[in-house]
Prior knowledge:
By secondary structure, the chain is α/β, with parallel strands linked by helices. A hairpin with a 4-residue loop joins strand 6 (156-160) and strand 7 (165-169). It contains 10 helices and 8 strands. It has a single domain, classed as Response regulator (Rossmann fold, 3-Layer(aba) Sandwich), CATH 3.40.50.
Amino acid sequence: MRRPPWSVTPIALLVLVLGLATSANADATDDRRALVMLRVLAYDKQLAARAGDEVRVILVFPSGDAGAAERARWSTAFANARKLKLDGRPVVVVEHKFATAKQLDRALHDPHAAALVVCDGLSKEIGLDDLAALTRARKVLTLSTRETEVVKGLAVGIVPGSSRDEIVINLAAATAEGVKFDAGLLQLARSVGAR
Length: 195
């Protein structure tokens, strides 16, 4: 089995995931979730073909006060990503306030994004079907923190479990987004799908 480009073995990821206890400190929880999202991305065997010279992660947040809070929340959580590399490529985190599907499509394409973090409230401004159509057309991995969105067609969720966060994956959605996960990650994640 090929080792993922981020020097993390499946056992190390398991230890990390098991250590994601639900915390009263939301900032620490968000920081851990952002880190796990990047580690999940590192397990994509197609990352080199999808990313280019840098691994571009787009944070898409809704408009309004709630969107501003989500932007601040995830910008802070991904702040350390600027120091990381995946498969020798720097991680670049870009913020995008959702206005229209056409503008989002442009943000996913130029330069090409590897992943899109769907901030809370975004699915009220753009339907999940429309969002999935955009990310599938552009081969961009969708990441969420809400299992219902993964069940309905987004690819990956880092979601609260009974005592710890869990990784949930919609394999059909991930495949449609051009992602092929290493078996080590699939052993650690829980698979969900459209019902």
